[in-house]
Amino acid sequence: MLSQIGRYDHVTRLPNRLQFLEQFEPLAMSPVPNMLVLVTLADARHYNEILRALGMAFADDFVRAGAKLLGSLLPPQTRLFQVSVLSFAAAVPADNAADTPLVASVIAAAFAGAIEVNAIPIKTHVGVGLVPIELERGGAESLRAALVAAQDSRRTESGVAFYNHQSDAAHLRAFKILADLPQAIRSADQLQLHYQPRIDLRTGGCHGAEALIRWIHPELGAISPAEFIPLAEQTALIGPLTEWVMLRAMTENRRLLDAGYDLRVSINASPVNLSEHGFDDMLLHHCEAAGLQPHHIELEFTEGTLATNSARTIQQLARLRAAGIVVALDDFGSGYSNLSYLSRIPADVLKIDQSFVRPLTATGDDDFLLRHIVSIARGLGFRVCAEGIETAYAFDHLRALGCDEGQGYFMARPMPAAALGQWLDGRS
Ligand code: C2E
Ligand code: MG
Ligand code: MG
């Protein structure tokens, strides 16, 4: 009896993961090809909702009801294992590796909608994942692959998904990026800032540059900020990352000022940063410590920022602005542009998203939205900056529309701080 402890799930009494792993090898060596089907009853959020609303005993009943229904759908003699609190696995015959085994479709159909638990219909968010059982993959890796497939299945029409190496590779890459980011922030040479000049469209002068982060990963090579910033935003790493950018941008700007270039540096902040208490103090503190005046710094934020914690965000932006930091709304028009807030946001500059600017290449190109955005923004008292100017035509046209400033490959690409000094020298 004692030897059985730890080998069965205490809620359903089904054999657990340990037993699955022990039996994996014989299963994989069976003369008929087998497919591993993994069923997850709910995702963590849904399970927590059940726990919160109905309690732990009911949540156990939910798992038992799921296990019972699942058992009734499997071919006779099939052994069902419970491999985690909400996941079950079984080996089913694979007649043809390319076809979904019938039983997987039957399971997805039976769990679609709701299952009855203590006479209450409870909505399920079941995932059904499939992976061929192969000796080389091993038991633990097969479970992981099937779980990936079960998660993918929530986005499929049929409710069933095969393990997909590509989708898994993307997840593994995201995981590696996040795991390696703390070391990159600590190391001296993996992260860098490049600066893209901001040009006054009337005079052609350059009085500012936007700091854009670059990461050269020791194994993966250059990783775009468009890939790693959104990942960092899902974690607490976005705090130290933005602080790193801030410190580096301020130090490099101080050096450029000392060398005689009168520049304002624009720093991109994430929605999470601005929703965190004390961000304004930190920025002002670093600004002073670097020996900069507040007007030497511009803070760029995006529309999404206002959705995160709008009260605190607006308060912090207003405070920074009152202290003399220039505030810019980035990527305007790319989100769900709620025009009613435009008159209330504490910003000085509105940066028009590239998607309105880049299509502009020749006379006659549709500029209806662009024209009116510039007009509304100027009417509300913002200075307007267009992003993504790639052609002489776009440059001239935006100037004619009354746009104040611009950035884009036509004028200059982002470049390291030292190159920015040379670029400015070349223009004077
Ligand atoms: P963003 O803030 O809107 O920055 C402008 C992006 O457009 C930059 O891409 C820039 O290299 C690119 N760009 C500029 N001119 C042109 C052009 O004429 N044509 C085209 N096709 N692209 C142009 P990058 O550096 O890859 O950055 C992408 C995004 O990543 C940024 O968009 C920003 O949202 C984010 N990002 C970059 N650095 C940071 C950072 O330090 N902190 C945070 N929170 N986000 C950052
Ligand atoms: Mg920006
Ligand atoms: Mg932008």
Structure, described:
The protein is an alpha/beta fold and 428 residues long. It has 2 domains: 162 residues, Reverse transcriptase/Diguanylate cyclase domain (Alpha-Beta Plaits, 2-Layer Sandwich), CATH 3.30.70; 255 residues, EAL domain (TIM Barrel, Alpha-Beta Barrel), CATH 3.20.20. The protein is 45% helix and 21% strand. The protein has 17 helices and 17 strands. Strands 8-9-11-12-13-14-15-16 form an 8-stranded mixed β-barrel, surrounded by 5 helices. A 5-stranded mixed β-sheet has the order 2-3-1-6-7, sandwiched between helices. A hairpin with a 2-residue loop joins β4 and β5. α10 packs parallel to α12. The longest helix is centred in the middle third of the chain and has 22 residues. The radius of gyration is 28 Å and the shape is elongated. Bound molecules: ligand C2E and magnesium ion (2 copies). The site of one magnesium ion has 4 residues, from β13. One magnesium ion binds next to loops.
Give the CATH level 1 class of the largest domain.
Alpha Beta
Ions, cofactors and other bound molecules: ligand C2E, magnesium ion
Largest sheet: 8 strands, mixed, barrel
- At the fold tier of CATH, the topology name of the largest domain is TIM Barrel
Shape: elongated
Give the helix level as a range of percent: 40-55%
Helix count equals: 17
Question: Which key phrases capture this entry?
Answer:
428 residues, alpha/beta, Alpha-Beta Plaits, TIM Barrel, eight-stranded mixed β-barrel, five-stranded mixed β-sheet, elongated, binds ligand C2E, binds magnesium ion
